[in-house]
Amino acid sequence: MSNAPVSLSRFMLEEERKHKEAVGDFTIILEQIAFAAKIISREVNKAGLVNILGSTESHNVHGETQQKLDLFSNEEMIKALDPTGKVYAMASEEVDELIPVSDKSLEGKYAVVFDPLDGSSNIDVNVSIGTIFGIYKKVESQNPVDSLLQKGKELLCAGYVIYGSSTMFVYTTGNGVNGFTLDPSVGEFLLSHQDIKIPEYGKIYSINESNYDRWAKGIQEYVKFIKNHPDRQYTARWIGSLVADFHRNLLKGGVFLYTEDSKKNKNGKLRLLYEANPMSFIVEQAGGLSTNGQMRILDIKPTSLHEKTPLILGSKYEVEKYLEFREKYV
Ligand code: P6P
Predict the structure, then answer these.
(1) How do the domains of the chain map onto residue ranges?
(2) Between 3.40.720.10, 3.40.190.80, 2.160.10.10, 3.40.50.620, what CATH number should domain 204-328 receive?
(3) 205-256 pLDDT, tens per residue?
(4) CB count in 10 Å sphere of residue 325
(5) Distance 26 CA to ligand 1 centre (A)
(6) Centre of ligand 1 from the C-alpha of residue 189, in Å
């Protein structure tokens, strides 16, 4: 049995062979996302040394100041995907409308949503950040946006890249979750976390408690319960970077919550298409749960590219307990 490291490319090809109808288009898209991730990783890891730190004068659709690395990462994703001719439609957190694709891409069979660099407000303070993506099959419709406004449960693939102490590529195509760590010396992502499963329960809860006074009673009572759990001591961890907080909880167990509140974020802060849905697909494939407090995230029918949703996801125990408290206190 060879103990040679398994590269992401080899893993993808072996996955592709399991689908006799596959012609390789899907693998090409994934390979290109991995390629863009390597470029972004290189720039993120030297951001302090070149004039790519800091913010631009521009703002995204959410009114957030766009960081230079945000825009750089967005461009890298588009440059990696459009030339393949396989991507019929694309949407990004950094672009207000549907991203125009070249004529040859109009024959593409897939649609891709992505947050090119989530958590970018942390770039200047050297905190882990990430890229999040999801891939859909194109739907036959007059309006290309319809291929992007599909329920999360229609995703063919979802993944994220975390630019942290190492750069990792974590993804699922519906057959479990696997993690690959970038070996910069060879420029390859190598299989390092095979068949990731999130623990049934954890000891970590991740929520920004500065919003406490604006939460519904059920959320307040849930957090109080977790902080005083009868069976185990939980600890609070909040990095303020979804990919970093999610990745830690995926590996160690626990719950991540960005709930709605009465003032700042009436429908939560995170975006359904390119943050909540991909992370929800991954956590469910790893044995966890993901809800908006009323329903499964992956069952929500999106109505606009940048709509927000409350997001509570992680280990089954903590998410089910959250639903109990929301039911009890409304
Ligand atoms: P807050 C980063 O800006 C982000 O979109 C997510 O990555 C992160 O989980 C959240 O916002 C942090 O929000 O309100 O704690 O700054």
Answers:
(1) 8-193, 204-328
(2) 3.40.190.80
(3) 999 999 999 999 999 999 999 999 999 999 999 999 999 999 999 999 999 9
(4) 21
(5) 31
(6) 27
pLDDT in tens, 125-141: 889 999 999 999 999 99
Give the contacts of 89 (CB within 8 A, at least 6 positions apart). Answer: 98, 99, 101, 108, 111, 112, 138, 144, 145, 147, 148
The overall pTM is greater than 0.85: yes
Taking domain 8-193, whether its CATH number is 3.30.70.100 is answered by: no
Closest residue CA from atom 4 of ligand 1: 119
Give residue 131's identity as a one-letter amino acid code: T
> How far does the centroid of ligand 1 lie from the alpha carbon of residue 7, in Å?
32
172 with 160: CB under 8 angstroms?
Answer: no
Pocket test for ligand 1, best of 131, 161, 258 (most atoms within 8 A of CB): 258
